[in-house]
Amino acid sequence: MTASPKEKKQSAFKVLRFLFPTIFRAAPAAFLAYGVLSTLHGLSWGVQTLFQQRFFDKATKLATGDSDLSYAFFALLFLAGATVTCQILNGVSNYIPEISLSKISGKLSYEIHHKISKLAPVLFEEPSKLDTLNKAEQGKNQAVWFVFNFMSIFTFYVPYFIFMGGYL
Length: 168
Known about the structure:
Layout: H1 5-8, H2 12-26, H3 28-64, H4 69-117, H5 127-167
Helix pairs in contact: 2-3, 2-5, 3-4, 3-5, 4-5
């Protein structure tokens, strides 16, 4: 079975342009919290790298006798703090999409069912229409994950690479 010309023209960016506002309206606080925490998580990886390099520098100086133990100890404390912070941000930024999925999924189901309720009953006898409705219902959770994964590219990886590019 071939897709109609309208279905072939759908690109990922057209889908995202529709999905972003839809998912934002479904859970704005979770969406914004994920964006902020994911950005902080990306930056924390860079900070962790910075403190790791400083710890190794202090440990090397301590081994050669050019530094005091207290400098290496404080560098280790900063590295431990950065690592713990990074892991906490990782857990929270991975948890937000998980807990938001049911709320967003419920609101998307409501929108889907609201649109379905406006259809003429005769359309439910067409297999192609039923197939489209089933795809919409089944695809809503994947759509949410798609948006959160796409968002993580810009909120986690872009800040991380900008930080690391500046640092290196």
